[in-house]
Amino acid sequence: MNKPMKSKNSTGNKRLLPMLLAVIVVLLVVLLFFITTGSKSSGSAELEGLPNYTDVKGTFVVDGLKYEKQPHLGKEDAKVKVIEFADFKCPACKKWTATYLDTFIKDYVDTGKVQFFFMNFAFIDRDSYLAASAGEAIYQQSNEKFWEYVHKLYANQGDESKIWATQKFILKFVKDNIEGIDYGQFEQDLKNHTYMYDVKEDFKIAGAYGVNGTPKFMVNGVLLPDSSYEGLSAAIESALTEAK
């Protein structure tokens, strides 16, 4: 009995199938490679311009709180000087600002009792440093605009666990929200890390005085044990009494 002969088409199809599968696998590998490298380069682009404290060189000497270098509110002859140590990525700082700052200004700053200062303690992540240096750049142009930056940046605060205050974000945020400054100068200062030394200096000073988190408050040079509004008010009233 003669065996039936296999058709040429059947044999060809069987040979073609593995080749097609191989081509599909190669295409999938290439596609996955481009997707992966694309997302990595996109992420790298977002991280560009983020500073490290180790990149900031200089001699840091802690010889006082340097009130004269800090953004401020209130009269110079106020009997009590209060410093807030803060990080723009800190959710508790955002909450304190939204809940208490306006009341604090009304009760203590506008009445001439307190001169209030803001001091960076940028410790959460690399974008903390960048957001702080952006604030310094704005302050160098306008003390008033710095406080506008504080309010608005906290209102637009991102997730503490993620890097959100990137160079791209801050440039767009300031352009859209802070009017009345030289934006070109601000952009140059941010990209060149012009005021990163000042941010690191604040960090060194704060650490030397015992600051280890945010928000923290200091009243006439004394660091308070907690960040409650009640504790701050009590310390201010005590200092006012001593000053009489």
UniProtKB/TrEMBL annotation:
InterPro entries documented for this protein: Thioredoxin-like_fold, Thioredoxin-like_sf, Thioredoxin_domain
Xref: Pfam families: Thioredoxin_4
Ranges of residues in domain Thioredoxin: 44-241
One GO MF term attached to the UniProt entry: oxidoreductase activity
Key words of the record: Disulfide bond, Oxidoreductase, Redox-active center, Signal
Family per record: Belongs to the thioredoxin family. DsbA subfamily.
Record-given protein name: Disulfide bond formation protein DsbB
